[in-house]
């Protein structure tokens, strides 16, 4: 549905915000662009929308090349972070605005605006102006405006970032349900991995203008393709510990673990394991990371425990009834089946 080939955007001054990027987004897909600040997410979205001109490469929407077309001729609707509503217009006029630009007759566009407003539970608010609405209501007006003109795709730039924490959760569920109902291809920019994991069908994780991995939420969470994605995804960061294979075993942070498949003697690797897959045992343990409890953080229903293992810190998430005392000797025992091994930054596939 949306294809990008070698797409590059360089700003004056030589900043390459999007770097020779290839991507295929399927029809009806809810697709998230995720990455740290400055990685080029917004630039990529704006280049798809036509608000930025590509320096090189092609953008194809629904089989039609749109690279040289202005935004108005790409048949996509963009919803901005700040909603970009017209402050002097009431809700109906805001929603109907794109239809007015397309010269839809007044009666027809007002009927369409009313119908869309009702779908988004805005019927009571039609006569109000944006300044008289809550953040969540303004967001729904912006969505209604995008929906009313039946675009081929929605492009959302951090649409939930102006809502408070509780509203965000509500809006997330609402948006996902709405996207399912409408089945319109949606590209969604966020720096919030929880949001991307919860909402998207697939996620592209970006860094420095490039895509580091494309996959379903389960894929990027369970099998990060490289150490960048491994360290970026996860509410508590993954343990990433340098190790070496010697005498048929993996030596890492003082522990001697089974040799991973696909790695030969003498090779240096990074051993990755989410703290959720580390169990904490008292005292020493044959195949674990022995250390001293240095920090215990309350996560609500569990504790994040940081063990000082000499040269390295190892983290484990333990159940709420197993809070260890700071300073105690303990051992983090990995669930081997969950471990990931990286060589030269890339996942070694078993
Ligand atoms: P954030 O999450 O902080 O919004 P982002 O991933 O959306 O970041 P972009 O806003 O696309 O990132 O910016 C990508 C890079 O391009 C950054 O290095 C930024 O400084 C640069 N950049 C963005 N807009 C311009 C511009 N108009 N002129 C020059 N450089 C720009």
Automatic annotation (TrEMBL):
The keyword ATP-binding applies. Transmembrane segments: none annotated. InterPro entries: AAA+_ATPase (IPR003593), ABC_transporter-like_ATP-bd (IPR003439), ABC_transporter-like_CS (IPR017871), ABC_transpr_MalK/UgpC-like (IPR047641), CysA_C (IPR041193), Mo/tungstate-bd_C_term_dom (IPR008995), NA-bd_OB-fold (IPR012340), P-loop_NTPase (IPR027417). GO terms for cellular component: ATP-binding cassette (ABC) transporter complex, substrate-binding subunit-containing. One of its GO terms (molecular function) is ABC-type transporter activity. Residues 2-233 form the ABC transporter domain. Keywords: ATP-binding, Cell membrane, Membrane, Nucleotide-binding, Translocase, Transport. Pfam families: ABC_tran, CysA_C_terminal. This is Sn-glycerol-3-phosphate import ATP-binding protein UgpC.
């Amino acid at each position: 549905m949306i294809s990008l080939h070698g797409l590059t955007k360089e700003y004056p001054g030589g900043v390459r915000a999007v770097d020779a990027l290839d991507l295929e987004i399927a029809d009806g897909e809810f697709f998230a662009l995720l990455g740290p600040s400055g990685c080029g997410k917004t630039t990529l979205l704006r280049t798809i929308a036509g608000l930025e001109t590509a320096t090189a490469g092609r953008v194809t929407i629904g089989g039609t090349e749109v690279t040289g077309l202005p935004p108005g001729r790409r048949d996509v609707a963009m919803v901005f972070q700040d909603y970009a509503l017209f402050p002097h217009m009431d809700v109906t006029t805001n929603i109907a605005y794109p239809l007015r630009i397309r010269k839809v007759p007044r009666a027809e566009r007002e009927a369409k605006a009313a119908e869309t407003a009702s779908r988004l539970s805005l019927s009571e608010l039609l006569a109000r102006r944006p300044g008289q609405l809550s953040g969540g209501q303004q967001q729904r007006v912006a969505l209604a405006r995008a929906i009313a003109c039946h675009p081929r795709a929605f492009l959302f730039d951090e649409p939930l970032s102006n809502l408070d924490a509780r509203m965000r959760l509500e809006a997330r569920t609402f948006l996902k349900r709405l996207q399912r109902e409408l089945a319109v291809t949606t590209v969604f920019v966020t720096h919030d991995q929880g949001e991307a994991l919860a909402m998207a069908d697939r996620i592209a994780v970006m860094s420095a203008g490039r895509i580091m991995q494309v996959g379903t939420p389960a894929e990027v969470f369970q099998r990060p393709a490289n150490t960048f994605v491994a360290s970026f995804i996860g509410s508590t960061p993954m343990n990433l510990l340098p190790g070496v294979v010697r005498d048929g075993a993996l030596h890492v942070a003082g522990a001697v673990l089974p040799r991973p498949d696909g790695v030969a003697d003498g090779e240096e690797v990074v051993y990755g394991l989410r703290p959720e897959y580390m169990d904490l045992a008292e005292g020493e343990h044959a195949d674990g990371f022995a250390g001293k409890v240095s920090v215990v953080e309350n996560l609500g229903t569990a504790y994040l425990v940081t063990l000082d293992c000499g040269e390295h810190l190892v983290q484990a998430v333990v159940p709420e009834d197993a809070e260890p005392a700071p300073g105690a000797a303990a051992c983090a025992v990995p669930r081997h089946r969950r471990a990931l091994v990286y060589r030269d930054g890339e996942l070694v596939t078993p």
